[in-house]
Design brief:
single chain; alpha/beta; Aldehyde Dehydrogenase, Chain A, domain 1; Aldehyde Dehydrogenase, Chain A, domain 2; 3 domains; 7-stranded mixed beta sheet; 6-stranded mixed beta sheet
Length: about 500
C-alpha cells in the first residue's frame, strides 16, 4: 500500500478550483440562513451529519490517501493514521458523547438565591469559519468542523490551497453532503481575505503566527472571537537520568513524522552534556532502523510540501555540524532526516520554528540550564521531557509553560480526546478536541430559574435596617451542601 516511487508535486488532477471571490459572501449567507432557520440545532441533525461525514471518509479513503501522497508524499500508514483515522476517531468520540455534552449543566445556587436552580445551557454560536493548514490537510480541516457541527453550528471551511489535491477532495466531500449548513471556500490569499471580511460568530485558524495576527485583526472588525492553533519551537529536554534508547526512538519518530512538518514536532533537543554523544549515536541508529541506510528510498518517509519551503529548510543545514542526514534533492522535494550538533544557541535554526526534518541537538549543563533556556524564549505549543526520575520530570512541567506536554514521549498527548489541544501565548489561544472542541464552539449560557411559590420581600424597596442585617447574614451563610457537612461534623464530635 506504500510506494517507493518519487513523489511528484501536487497537480490539479483532483480538480482544485478557487472559489470566485464575489461568491464568498453568498456562501456565508447560505450558512447563516441555515443556522437562523434552526436547521443545525436538533441533536438528530448533528448526529446524522457527523455519521455522513464519517461514511464519506471511509468511502473516499483511496482518493484521500492518493491526494495526501500527491501533496506531501505521505506514506499510507501515516496518511491514514494521522489524517483519516484521526478524523474518524474524533467523530466516533463526539457521537458517543454528544447527548451528554449538550445537556444543561447544573451548578450550585447560594442560600440567598433560594429557592432556585442555576445551570449552564450550551448553545451554538452560529456560523463558524474554519481555516485549515496544509501539513495535515484532512485532519485539521475536519476535526474543528466536527466539533463545530457537534455543537450545532453552521460551518464554512477553507482547506489549504498549498495541499490542492487534498483540498479538492475535501471540497467534493462537503459538496456531496448537500447540506446548506456546510459550505466550502477554495483559494489563496484573495479568497481568504474576502472570507475573513464576512461577519461570522467564530473563526478557527490553524497555521503560523504571522497569519494569525492577520486573522485577529480581521476578527476585530466585528469583535469575532477566535481560536488560533499556531506553533513555535517545541523543545525536548533529555536529562542524564533518561532511558536513552527509548528517548532516541521516540524523538526520532516524533520529529520525522510527516518529514517534520508537524506543529508539535520536537523542534530542538536540550540534552545533558554527559549523555550528549550517547543520545546522538542512538538517534542515528533509530533513523537507520526506521528509514534504512537511504531514507530517500523508504516508503515510510514523506516529502516537503513545496519548493519554497524546501529551500528555506535547506539553508538551515548550515546551522551546525551534520551528524545524520543532510542530503537534499530539490527535484523530489526530499530532505533527509537530519540531526545537527555543535549548534550555537543563536544559530539560524534556533531563531524560528523549523517545521521540517532538521533537528538541532544542544548540550546543556544540567536541568536548570535547560529550563532557563526554554523560559528565555516564547512559550511553545508542546514540550517534551525524558527522565526516569519523577522529581526531574515534575520540575520541568512545573517550571515551564507550554500548550501541552508529554513525559517520556512525543506527540502522543494530542491523541487523547479527553485532553485539550491548544497553545499558550504566541503558540496560540483557545483549545479543542473532544468536549473541549464542543465547548469552544458553544456559548455556555448562564440560566437561573426562580420559583414563584415564595416571593421574599427583602429584595424589594423600601429597604430597611432589618432587611440589610438579614441580607448581610445571608451572604455569609454557606452553601446548603456545605452547611450539611458542617452540621454532620459537629454531630460526629465526641
Amino acid at each position: 500500500m506504500t510506494t517507493t516511487e518519487p513523489r511528484p508535486p501536487a497537480t490539479d488532477a483532483f480538480g482544485f478550483e478557487a472559489t470566485p471571490v464575489d461568491a464568498i459572501a453568498g456562501l456565508v449567507e447560505a450558512a447563516r440562513d441555515a443556522f437562523d432557520a434552526g436547521r443545525t440545532r436538533p441533536l438528530a441533525w448533528r448526529l446524522d451529519l457527523l455519521g455522513r461525514v464519517r461514511a464519506a471518509l471511509v468511502d473516499r479513503e483511496a482518493e484521500l490517501l492518493e491526494a495526501l501522497r500527491q501533496d506531501l508524499g505521505k506514506p499510507t500508514f501515516e496518511a491514514w493514521t494521522a489524517d483519516i483515522g484521526f478524523g474518524i476517531s474524533e467523530i466516533d468520540h463526539a457521537v458517543a458523547s454528544l447527548r451528554s455534552w449538550a445537556k444543561p449543566r447544573r451548578v450550585r445556587t447560594p442560600v440567598t438565591f433560594q429557592p432556585g436552580v442555576s445551570k449552564l445551557v450550551p448553545e451554538p454560536l452560529g456560523v463558524v469559519t474554519v481555516i485549515a493548514p496544509w501539513n495535515y490537510p484532512v485532519q485539521l480541516a475536519l476535526q474543528p468542523l466536527v466539533a463545530a457541527v457537534a455543537a450545532g453550528n453552521a460551518v464554512v471551511v477553507k482547506p489549504s490551497e498549498l495541499a490542492p489535491a487534498s483540498a479538492a477532495v475535501i471540497a467534493d466531500i462537503v459538496h456531496g453532503l448537500g447540506d446548506p449548513a456546510l459550505q466550502v471556500v477554495q483559494g489563496g490569499v484573495a479568497e481568504t481575505t474576502e472570507l475573513l471580511a464576512q461577519r461570522v460568530d467564530h473563526i478557527f485558524y490553524t497555521g503560523n503566527g504571522r497569519v494569525g495576527r492577520v486573522v485577529m485583526a480581521a476578527a476585530a472588525e466585528h469583535l469575532t472571537p477566535v481560536t488560533l492553533e499556531l506553533g513555535g519551537k517545541s523543545p525536548v529536554i533529555v536529562t542524564a537520568a533518561a532511558n536513552l534508547d527509548v528517548a532516541a526512538r521516540r524523538i526520532v519518530w516524533g520529529k520525522f513524522l510527516n518529514a517534520g512538518q508537524t506543529c508539535i514536532a520536537p523542534d530542538y533537543v536540550l540534552v545533558d552534556r554527559s549523555v550528549h554523544d550517547l543520545l546522538v549515536d542512538r538517534m542515528r541508529a533509530a533513523v537507520t532502523e526506521f528509514y534504512g541506510e537511504d531514507p530517500k528510498g523508504s516508503p515510510d518517509y514523506a516529502r516537503i510540501v513545496n519548493e519554497a519551503h524546501f529551500h528555506r529548510l535547506e539553508k538551515l543545514l548550515d546551522s551546525g555540524t551534520v551528524a545524520v542526514g543532510g542530503v537534499a534533492d530539490a527535484d523530489e522535494r526530499y530532505l533527509a532526516p537530519t540531526i545537527l550538533t555543535d549548534v550555537e544557541r543563536d544559530a539560524p535554526a534556533m531563531a524560528e520554528e523549523i517545521f521540517g526534518p532538521v533537528l538541532p541537538v544542544l548540550a546543556t549543563d544540567g536541568l536548570d540550564d535547560a529550563v532557563a533556556f526554554v523560559n528565555a524564549h516564547d512559550k511553545p505549543l508542546a514540550l517534551y521531557v525524558f527522565s526516569e526520575q519523577d522529581a526531574e520530570t515534575d520540575a520541568v512541567i512545573e517550571r515551564t509553560s507550554s500548550g501541552g506536554a508529554c513525559v517520556n514521549g512525543t506527540i502522543f498527548h494530542v491523541s487523547n480526546p479527553e485532553l485539550p489541544f491548544g497553545g499558550v501565548g504566541p503558540s496560540g489561544m483557545g483549545s479543542y478536541h473532544g468536549k473541549w472542541g464542543f465547548d469552544t464552539f458553544s456559548h455556555l449560557k448562564a440560566v437561573h430559574e426562580r420559583s414563584t411559590r415564595l416571593d421574599p420581600p427583602m429584595m424589594y424597596p423600601p429597604f430597611t435596617d432589618q432587611k440589610e442585617r438579614l441580607l448581610r447574614k445571608g451572604f455569609l451563610l454557606p452553601d446548603p451542601r456545605d452547611a450539611v457537612k458542617l452540621v454532620r461534623a459537629k454531630l460526629s464530635r465526641p
